[in-house]
Amino acid sequence: MWPYVKLFKYYLVTFLEILHVIIQAVNHYIFSTTEKNIRNEIVLITGSGRGLGQQVAVLFARRGAIVVLCDSDEIGNSETLKLISELNTEQRVYSYTCDIGNRTEVRQLVERIQSEVGNITMLVNNATVLTSNSILDMSEDEFARCLNANLFASYWLIRQILPSMMRRNHGHIVTMLGATAVFGLGNFSAVCTAKSGLVGLMESVDHELTLGGYDGIYTTAAVSHYLTTHLFQLSKTCFSPVVPPLTLDYAAKKIMHAILINRKFVCVPRLYYLIPFVKGILPARAFMILLNTLVNPKVPMYTEQESIVNGRNSRSGSQHIPRKRSYMSACQ
């Protein structure tokens, strides 16, 4: 009889601990709006040349952080650098050009930052390469490049930066995800593979930090709806009237708030929290019907036709010519 009593007590204690954590989480979610001070934190932001990365970089700079910009687009990075420099407060910002899909460049980048700026205390994995092709039409090189930039780059950066965070038990790792992290979408096999892998990577890293007792290192995974960047300006789905594209400013502020209150997982908008629940309770075929109704993968997504100006892509202000999206960078 005694072994059963001991087992019952073990599970009861586990249940009470889980209940206590749930109550704490609900209390934190409802009542805690205190944002942490990130002044003098050294923040590395990948894909900072434009879009969400640029917007987040400006928000970090406004709060007094030491911002380290990283993008393969040197001109875009210069624009972000200029935006931050124009702020009224004293800013400390550094700019680096790097192809994060190349492991050697990533290693050299981190070494340069550590010697020229200092140990990175906050990492924002934002840079993304986006491909839109069926799995049969996509080449192996294209698939591999997408995984290198979207998945392995985050792994390489975490491997390089995490040891210094662990020595001080201080840091924060942020990964930007999209809708493809919560469900698989046709013609986006490479992106879905990478983003789903990032979810597992972040959860595993968080578990390892918990097991090691590193309570001063936080992780945040951010899922956002598609944004009103030039990549998606003309894209239309049946879901658009319910959840229209997000503005960069709105998405960046919501994600920034989640980072500053150390939230592990954030969806913008909140409706995205329901996707794993709906996916879990519906039969697989029923969820597929729902997905095809709201976001039909057979309908090509379009964006504005761009002209090449001064060696980089620039919007054409006089004419909007839709073209099929075949390959692009979500950093743009």
UniProtKB/TrEMBL annotation:
Keywords: Membrane, Oxidoreductase, Transmembrane, Transmembrane helix. SUPFAM superfamilies: NAD(P)-binding Rossmann-fold domains. The chain crosses the membrane at residues 12-31. GO terms for molecular function: oxidoreductase activity, acting on the CH-OH group of donors, NAD or NADP as acceptor. Residues 310-332 are annotated as: Disordered. The keyword Cell division does not apply. This is Uncharacterized protein. Residues 310-319 have a biased composition (Polar residues). Belongs to the short-chain dehydrogenases/reductases (SDR) family. It comes from the Eukaryota. GO terms for cellular component: lipid droplet.
